[in-house]
Please model this.
Amino acid sequence: MRPFIVANWKMHGLKADMNEVKAIDSAAAKFDHIDVGIGLPATLIHLAAQNAGHAQIGAQDCHQAQQGAHTGCLSAAMLSEAGASFSIVGHSERRADQAETSRLIAQKARSLQNASMGAILCIGEDLATRQSGTALDFVAGQLVESLALADDTSLSPERLTIAYEPIWAIGTGHVPELTDIAAMHSKLRSQLVSSFGPAGDAIRILYGGSVKASNAKDILALKNVNGALVGGASLKAESFVPIIAAA
Ligand code: PEP
Model:
């Protein structure tokens, strides 16, 4: 399975940062056995797509509807036309700040799949859940809920990537024990196979949460860790490219 290393720029980035996109794109050309994605603010997607020939350009959210009276929102078709080939959905910051539910996130992912775009669907537990010892079951349940569509159908396993991001590890410098990451990814793999059959084995499961050059190699070597979703360390090519190299 090709590793997938994805940058999440969150609400960072102006045109002046296009040099970082170009440098990441050069690394994507060099490490051509790895898929590299850059999840950008929507304002930069078009320009970045014009400047990148190797890295996949993506968004960080997408509305679930194809069009309509949704002021300020962007549809999958709009993101695709701007040059995005994927979008992150269900990031914990959006689940918290915009009160997004797993049900809504499944609809957003479906909307992306319908537009032939990839969906990187994020799940992960908070610190209290981790400390209570129930993280494995909680996150597996969140995955099931985030795959389910209202009409009793499920998302397609095609163009689907899962990102396991423990909320307490995002932007904190704290990373779970390697054994805990491995246990979670193994649990999620079993759940994907149970949901999709053999197709569940081909879905990439990324780890996200304080990934940096110094810990990337050990994390990415774990079974069922098929890549990384990287926030802070992805804003500059000089800290992101070594993570690509570690894969
Ligand atoms: C993220 O928010 O997706 C993330 C992984 O952030 P960081 O790498 O900064 O922890």
Residues 8, 165, 170-171, 208-211, 229-233 surround phosphoenolpyruvate (CB under 6 Å). Strands lie at 4-8, 35-39, 56-59, 86-89, 118-123, 160-164, 204-208, 227-230.
